[in-house]
Every structure is written in C-alpha cells, then in structure tokens.
Amino acid sequence: MSISEQVLLRYRDEGHLRFDLPPELCEPHAATELVAGIQSQEGIYRVDLLAGKGKLAIRYLSTVCGFTDVVKHLQAVIQSLGQKPLQTSSRALVLRPAANQSLTERLQSAQTAVSRWLRAKLQELRETAEAMKIMLRRFTGSDPANPDLQPRWIKEFLNDLVMLYLIKYHWHHITTEWLPRPWTHRYEWAATLYLIYLSVQARLPKPA
After folding, report:
1. pTM of the full structure
2. CA-CA 20 to 30 A from 59: which of 72, 135, 141, 206?
C-alpha cells in the first residue's frame, strides 16, 4: 500500500476537512514540510497537524478552492516530500471512513468528534468575545484595561441620568412643598443647587 493510500478522510464539511495520516508523514521534518506545502494553496487559511495522533485538519474558503482542488493539492504535496510516488487513480487518497471499526471504536470516535466540536465552539466563543471587545473599544474610544482613560461623555451621560432620576423621583415634593415653602426646605434646595454646580463643573474643559 502506497503512502497516499494510508491517508484517510475522516470528516468533510463545507470548508473543513480532517484526515488520518500514516506515521511517515508525522515525522517532525515531514510534518513541517507537509503543513508548509498545504498552506501554499490559495484559499487554504488554516492547517492543524497533530503529529502525536496522526491527525490533519484543513480549513479553506470554498469560494476560492473546492474540495477536489484541496485533495489534489494535498496529493501533490505528499508526492513532493520524496515519498513513494502516488497513484493517479481515484484511490490515490482513500476518501472513506474505515468500514471495519468495532462498536467501541466507533463510540470512541464519536466521543472524540463531540469533544473536538465543543473545543471548536469554545474557540469560536472566545474569538467572538474578543471581537466584541475590539468593537466596543472602537465605539467608545476607551480601553477596558485602563478605566482612567474612559471618555468623558460616558461619565456625563451617567450624571445626566442620575439627575433626571432624582428630579422625577422628587417632582411631586418640588411642586407641592419646596416651591411654596423654599425657606422651610432650604437644605433640599442647597443640595439641589450643589448638584447642579457639580454637573456644570464636570462639563467644563479641564486644563491639559
């Protein structure tokens, strides 16, 4: 059996392929050249090779290169590694799962697939969270790691919200008690004027 016939396709999805590799292709030098050769194909943006497990994962843009293009390129790369020449027939790469797996092996394979899926989803969530942080940083012009650099408009907006809430909450007392008897409620008026003073001071430009 040639080296290419030992390369088994284990998973195929839109823009995502996974293969089982023979030990010869998992040697450090061969693995490095294999990954570099695969990445040279336009449209392939990620190649993961787990040499210890003999697993190869390829992610590509299906709008740039198709499944057949990726397989042919993989075959050409394996040929260029100086291994046994690949056959040009359709069996050059065995694109089918092993049919003689036991029930235990199939269950283990399914558990491994679920584990890989969960890790992939977790990685996607992390990347999404990081992208949201970047978008928030660009929108607010702030740095979450340094609260002292928060833009002024955020503080001013929060201060305005507090002022509006206090006015709404005390509106009945202002119209029925504070205005008719200002001296009786002089302390309330003093606190109100002081809050207005603080709000105005917060909006004044600060010296550099």
Report:
1. 0.42
2. 135
